[in-house]
Amino acid sequence: MKPSSRSAVAPFYVMEVMKAAAERHAATGDVLHLEVGQPMTPAPAGVRAAAAAALGDDRLGYTHAAGTDALRHRIARFYGDRYGVAVDPGRVAVTVGASGGFLLALLAAFDAGARIGITEPGYAAYRNMITALDLELVGIRVGPETRYVPTPDAVAAAGPLDGFVVASPSNPTGTTLTPGELRAVAEHCHRNGIRLISDEIYHGITYGEPAATAWGMSPSGVVVQSFSKYYSMTGWRLGWLVLPDELIRPVEVLAQNLFISPPTLSQLAGVAAFDCAAELDGNVARYAGRRAIVVDGLRAAGIMDTAPADGAFYVWADVSHLTEDSRELCARWLDELGVAVTPGIDFDPAMGHRFVRLSYSESTEDVAEAMRRIVRWTASRPG
Ligand SMILES: Cc1ncc(COP(=O)(O)O)c(C=O)c1O
After folding, report:
1. Which one of 19, 90, 133, 363 is at 20 to 30 Å from 286 when CA atoms are compared?
2. Is residue 175 lining ligand 1, measured as CB closer than 6 Å?
């Protein structure tokens, strides 16, 4: 028997790069990882201590499908502390990462066939999840003309939409919308009956102005967040949604059926994450240093066209003067330089062959050495 046609989604190509990098690592021991999209740091010490205590003391049974009261209250408080906006704990649903949250939000908000706009370039797994759920994916191109951020005009030009996903800072570009830009998009969406889904997973990792939350900008909007990036807890599989009234109960019921509850140990430990700012901001300071190394290194390598790297730990670079096939370029860099970088096709099926994404979440020494190798490689090219 055949698998379903909805399961025929594109593979996540970065996984293939990681596999090739791991093979090379096993064979030569020499790979510098600029393909990985996760912090190299562990969860903060306070979280690990809370997890150790919970492991000793707690039964670790299921929790409420929307998460423990303690964590939902702590997340609600975070919105007041960080952004000065009020969030009722009843609006918070704790989820299995942002991925689980996005799945719940899509299922709760949209019927099959709904038209969902997503930026190109944009995060691959969201695109593929939209397709797997029989929703209609509508690509909205963002480029240098608008600093790689979506505008109300670009959203309007996509035709009638039921939903629009914005990620600020974005993966793969790192670009962040100003509060005014985000508000303009949010208000456009609300006026036109488009439900905004705001992915705020890279909040906390910004190098200029902090990113604004979309909560409160569009009454129908949903916020998706995660402990994976700023909180450095990818494998703990913990995230959350902030929901408008009409989606609270549908998300709860869907979560009961799809997940029963988010991971209990992670929830018990995750409460402590909000009191670990000194350690986590130290991580961000190190990202800032590595970001400068990558941006300067790319310039020295003659790779001048990059998206504004306002946040996250990525630089999105146009390499079309070097290749028309960034996949082949990445294979060469891995083979000849031992530098693993992600080709753009994961994030942009139409134009990604002209781009690569460099991640600077790994050690400063590795990032610096990778950039030295890329600079030497471009300098040694004929012409
Ligand atoms: C933009 C964006 N959204 C969501 C996710 C999924 O994150 P999580 O680990 O919380 O499921 C990622 C992971 O890389 C991401 O880059």
Report:
1. 19
2. no
How would you class 193 by CB atoms within 10 Å of its CB: exposed for 0-12, middle for 13-18, buried for 19 or more? Answer: exposed
Residue closest by Cα to atom 4 of ligand 1? 98
* Class of the CATH domain delimited by 46-275: alpha beta
Q: What is the pLDDT of residue 383?
A: 62
> Is any ligand 1 atom within 6 A of the Cβ of residue 38?
no
Q: What is the pLDDT of residue 15?
A: 81
**φ and ψ at 146, to 5 degrees?**
-120, 30
Specify the ligand 1 atom closest to the Cα of 226: 10
Domain limits, the chain: 5-42+278-377, 46-275
Q: Specify the residue for token string 């294979």.
A: 331
Mean pLDDT of 345-351: 93
> What is the value of pTM for the model shown?
0.96
Ligand 1 center–CA 213 separation, angstroms: 17
CA distance 181 to 198: 13
Phi and psi torsions of 223, nearest 5°? -105, 135
For ligand 1, say whether the CB of 63 is within 6 Å of any of its atoms: no
Closest-CA residue, ligand 1 atom 16, reads 171
Round to whole Å and give the CA distance between 316 and 359.
Answer: 9
